[in-house]
Amino acid sequence: xxxxxxxxxxxxxxxxxxxxxxxxxxxxxxxxxxxxxxxxxxxxxxxxxxxxxxxxxxxxxxxxxxxxxxxxxxxxxxxxxxxxxxxxxxxxxxxxxxxxxxxxxxxxxxxxxxxxxxxxxxxxxxxxxxxxxxxxxxxxxxxxxxxxxxxxxxxxxxxxxxxxxxxxxxxxxxxxxxxxxxxxxxxxxxxxxxxxxxxxxx
Length: 202
What we know:
Elements: H1 3-50, E1 74-83, E2 87-91, E3 95-98, E4 104-112, E5 118-127, E6 135-140, E7 146-148, E8 153-162, E9 172-181, H2 183-201
Parallel strand pairs: 1-9
Antiparallel strand pairs: 1-3, 2-4, 4-8, 5-7, 5-9, 6-8
């Protein structure tokens, strides 16, 4: 008879251990989701504090009186990355040679490969890091969140100027964008789309 209570106690301990493990896994999932969701606001706050290339503000005033320095040329290379986002994303040109102070227009292309609308936010980065202080963007898809319909293909412009104060030893710059999915927006977008479809049918 003593075997039955012992088994019962063992089953209770196993059940308690399983509950604790499930709780830990749940907390880890929430923390990971929150970290991914906060990456873009975190980047925005860093830019705001440092004053370098604010994600949401064009640098129009910074180039209003810029003179083109034709004595120098800088090779600007373009890169595209996705962070757990079901899109295709690439620059329409891999590089361009520009003079500091020259207004430059380039473009990226993105395609939503999912059968549902998805919202993403692009975060720029620069190599070498110091180049970010002299890279002035007047127009950029990274200024706003991008919501793509199922299968939508979009061409997105970038208009920029290199500040002539760029150090002379910087002859090559890599502008890289990484798109992050805004998880909270997917559910909201899907709900609004479903509501609009239902309204059209009625």
